[in-house]
Amino acid sequence: MVKNKESEQFTYSGEKARQGEIILRTRTRRIIFIAGLVGFIVLALAVRLAF
User: Fold this and answer.
1) Which among 6, 15, 31, 40 would be 20 to 30 A from 49, CA to CA?
2) Where do the TM regions start and end (predicted)?
3) Which residues contact 11 (CB under 8 A, 6 or more apart)?
């Protein structure tokens, strides 16, 4: 973090300003993530068909 003397604001490098990332390193985490996505789609379809 570098302080800009002219405007009194902080400047962050691109590496430090990045957002978080999803890390799916293990097979179990990938399966849980995909199951969650599929579950969300099934839930959305069920709600849409119910109304």
Assistant:
1) 31
2) 31-50
3) 1, 2, 3, 4
- Both structure tokens of 13: 């490098």
Question: Which segment of 19-23, 25-29, 44-48 scores lowest on mean pLDDT?
Answer: 19-23
Q: Please report the DSSP string for 1-51 in residue order.
A: -EEETTTTEEE--HHHHPPP-----SHHHHHHHHHHHHHHHHHHHHHHHH-
Mean pLDDT of the chain: 82
Place of tokens 């119910």: 50
pLDDT (tens digit per residue) in 8-20: 677 777 777 777 7
- Torsion of the alpha carbons at 28, 34, 38 and 43, rounded to the nearest 10: 70
